[in-house]
Amino acid sequence: MTIAVKVLHVNQARASKSFDIECEVLRNIRHRNLVKIINSCSNVEFKALVLEFMPNGSLEKWLYSQNHFLNVLQRLNIVIDIALAVEYLHHGHSLSVVHCDIKPNNILLDTDMVVHLGDFGIAKLLGEEDSMIQTKTLATIGYIIWIRRDCFYKSDVYSFGILVMETFTRKKQTDDMFGEEMSLKRWVKESLPSSLVDVVDSKLLNTGEREGLAAKDCKLFILQLALECSAEVAEERIDMEEVVARLKKIKTKYLHGTEQAEQVQVDGGDVTVAVAGG
Q1: For 138-197, what is each residue's pLDDT tens digit?
Q2: Which of 38, 78, 124, 190 has the CB geometry, 3.0–4.6 Å to 98, for a possible disulfide?
């Protein structure tokens, strides 16, 4: 059996707490889109988690490596898988969990390109006494903002929205083009809908005309949803149950549109065949 071993640096101040939190979370949750813990090792000098191995690495690698490419449907499936994982953490279990660090490095892909959300080292288990935490000091800057107790869930929704933008634009929040005057979210918001082609990953633009129309609508709806998730006011962000429902509708429309395009292309030739599912 091939495994992955996550070793924590015991000399770091938060290592023990991070290890305890991750063990507590992972032994209480089970979901297709969460990394599975196999075992743990812990003593004074060494702490490690034994996890299932993800052969296709992280979303970070697939987005930014020159040797990898994700098409529209693959990216759509990935964000749906992430949304399902977060929905489960928030609403699908008696122990509610806020991940607090949703980013491409923590999105892992198995052999079939199915997402497994990992790294629960700074997760929050709802029910703890903290009334407010400054998560900017705990998580990756730019992915999490201030959290009040009644807005815990919405912090993950915000992070998810930013992640979706990054997935479809292939731009990091730390890209050189962003600074005090411009951010990833503002760039996307000011470009939709008229300048969609200016923000979408250029690798996604090389499609046929009819198939491209379905893909264009898909990318537009996805980025508009991402903006709703990342609204500045937490109360204005939609919850993950609605996010999942809307993503599934977007996927259905995209698949229907591409099937129609394939049917037209086939009908225009010498042979007509039925498209599966049509």
Answers
A1: 445 445 444 454 467 899 999 999 999 999 999 999 999 998 889 999 999 999 999 999
A2: 124
- Which SS3 state, helix, strand or coil, does residue 4 take? strand
Q: Which residues are catalytic?
A: 101
Amino acid at 217: D
**Residue spans of alpha helices (H) in the chain:** 15-26, 59-64, 72-91, 152-169, 184-191, 196-199, 209-229, 240-267
- Domains of the chain as residue ranges with CATH: 54-267 (1.10.510.10)
Choose among 164, 246, 229: nearest CA to 199: 164
Kindly give the pairing relationship between strand 97-98 and strand 107-109: unpaired
**Three-class SS of residue 144?**
strand
* In 43-130, beta strands by DSSP E: 47-52, 97-98, 107-109, 115-117, 124-125
Report the alpha-carbon distance of residue 233 to residue 215 in Å, rounded.
30
Supply angle C-alpha 145, 33, 225, rounded to 5: 50
For the segment 233-258, what is each residue's pLDDT rounded down to a tens digit?
999 999 999 999 999 999 999 999 88
How far is the C-alpha of 157 from the C-alpha of 243, rounded, in Å?
9
Element (H, E) at 147: strand 147-148
Neighbours of 263 (CB within 10 A): 16
